[in-house]
Specification:
The protein folds into 3 domains: 1-32, no CATH class; 43-319, no CATH class; 338-441, Cytochrome b5-like heme/steroid binding domain (Flavocytochrome B2, Chain A, domain 1, Roll), CATH 3.10.120. Helices cover 50% and strands 4% of the residues. It contains 21 helices and 6 strands. A hairpin with a 2-residue loop joins strand 4 (358-361) and strand 5 (364-367). Helix 3 (72-98) packs parallel to helix 10, helix 4 (106-117) packs across helix 9 (188-208) and helix 9 (188-208) packs across helix 10. It catalyses: octadecanoyl-CoA + 2 Fe(II)-[cytochrome b5] + O2 + 2 H(+) = (9Z)-octadecenoyl-CoA + 2 Fe(III)-[cytochrome b5] + 2 H2O.
Length: 451
């Protein structure tokens, strides 16, 4: 008798071994979701702290920008500080603490934890817990930012409105024991204010006497820019681009989103190989976070940068390419299978050739009645071989026919000569278009094609 697993009321506090194997379907069946957001209840379902963080800084920043000229020094500081705090998210929150793609010294951990607070996207513990759930339950209702719910929802909607369901469980026991993560979580609010507002304003103020510009441009608008840059990892990276490594889920690779997200835009690769410290797997792909971590390793601040085997990465890429080729292959017309063709004796072949334009090549009978006027060598070469075996002539006796000619000839098969193909022509029987035909595993045992 099978015992149904105990329902997990609080997925935040469970041992991993207690999660039922069918957790997604089991939870969707047994856990009642909150009522959907409607025009009549939307204001009660808002997450007001998130609304404040997402709406107040851009509003104040846009108003301030109208009356605050952007000085060159402040513009440069905007770019520098955007990258610094961005690395706190991409290199710290994401690749270090969520995916453990490398090991960092305590110095680098504290630096990234402090810089990451300057983007005001929650503490490391909160952010990493949600992102691990996203990877584990991608594109399901237990994914906190399920891309199937729409571009706007996966960008900011999941934060503005209270979630209809708790995200699926994710093991964050390693983070609960990390002293840097615990320290940042405890002091997150003052750290966020200092790094998001006080530091960028003070640097511009003390540095070149642009207090107002530092507050508006390097503080508020920089905060909005970096926030939405990283939000695009959950939205645009599941919408724009292609899927070179896996086509089961929504994550995609795109150089445009890579530029927007500081290298996080090669998202299809990342979801397949999440513990790789690179998102831009190929050397030329734009991924400043990858270059930043490489530099940290050279400086002794980071070690054990993890990479997946090139063989496995290329195998995944080839799998998708073969699948795409298979799909293209199935849109084309192919010669009749051996089992679908009648077996004809030599005598029957000659008798039928008296009334039909039949020609025998490599053990197959072909009807070439519609090809006389199209034959490049002239109709006389075809007519003189009707009712005969033209194997030698076709395979170089008169002319070494092209691959296109072999493919076209195979489409004109109407029968198989009793006794089969002449010895030594077995490989030539298969037209070039089918020599590398893509077959499903289930087809291999019964396939009539050469291995």
């Amino acid at each position: 008798m099978l015992v149904e697993p105990t329902f997990l009321e609080n997925p935040e506090r469970i041992p991993t071994e207690a999660v039922p194997e069918n957790y997604v379907s089991y939870t969707l069946k047994h856990q009642e979701a909150l009522p959907p957001v409607t025009w009549s209840n939307w204001y009660r379902e808002l997450h007001w702290l998130h609304v404040f963080i997402l709406c107040v800084p851009p509003t104040l920043g846009i108003i301030g920008a109208w009356s605050t000229p952007l000085r060159l020094e402040t513009a440069i500081w905007f770019v520098i500080y955007s990258h610094l705090t961005g690395f706190g998210l991409t290199a710290g929150y994401h690749r270090l603490w969520t995916h453990r793609a490398y090991k960092a010294t305590k110095t680098l951990e504290y630096i990234l934890a402090i810089l990451g607070a300057g983007v005001v996207e929650g503490s490391i513990a909160w952010w990493a817990r949600g992102h691990r759930a996203h990877h584990r339950y991608t594109d399901t209702d237990l994914d906190p930012y399920n891309a199937h719910k729409g571009l706007l929802y996966s960008h900011i909607g999941w934060m503005i409105f209270k979630p209809r369901r708790k995200p699926g469980p994710a093991d964050v026991s390693d983070l609960r024991q990390n002293p840097v993560v615990k320290w940042q979580h405890r002091w997150y609010l003052p750290l966020a204010f200092i790094m998001a507002i006080a530091i960028p304003t003070s640097v511009a103020g003390y540095g070149w006497d642009d207090w107002r510009g530092g507050f508006v441009w390097a503080g508020l608008l920089r905060l909005v820019f970096v926030q939405h840059s990283t939000f695009c990892v959950n939205s645009l990276c599941h919408w724009l681009g292609d899927k070179p490594y896996d086509d089961k889920h929504t994550p995609k690779d795109c150089v445009i989103t890579a530029v927007i997200t500081m290298g996080e835009g090669y998202h299809n690769f990342h979801h397949q190989f999440p513990m790789d410290y690179r998102n831009g797997y190929k050397w030329y792909q734009y991924d400043p976070t990858k270059w930043f971590l490489w530099s940290c390793e050279k400086l002794g601040l980071a070690t054990h940068l993890k990479t997946f085997s090139d063989n496995e990465v290329q195998k995944g890429e080839l799998t998708v390419q073969l699948k795409q080729l298979r799909q293209k292959q199935e849109t084309l017309s192919w010669p009749a299978e051996k089992s679908d063709l009648p077996v004809i004796t030599w005598e029957d072949y000659q008798t039928q050739a008296e009334s039909r334009a039949l020609i025998c090549i490599a053990g197959y009978i072909h009807d070439i009645g519609d090809f006389f006027d199209k034959h490049p060598g002239g109709p006389h070469l075809l007519k003189k071989n009707i009712g005969k075996d033209a194997t030698t002539a076709f395979f170089g006796g008169l002319y070494e026919h092209s691959s296109a000619a072999h493919n076209l000839l195979a489409m004109k098969r109407v029968g198989i000569l009793l006794g089969g193909a002449p010895h030594g022509s077995e490989e030539k029987v298969v037209p070039p278009s089918q020599h590398l035909r893509i077959a499903r595993y289930s087809e291999l045992a019964s396939s009539g094609y050469p291995e």
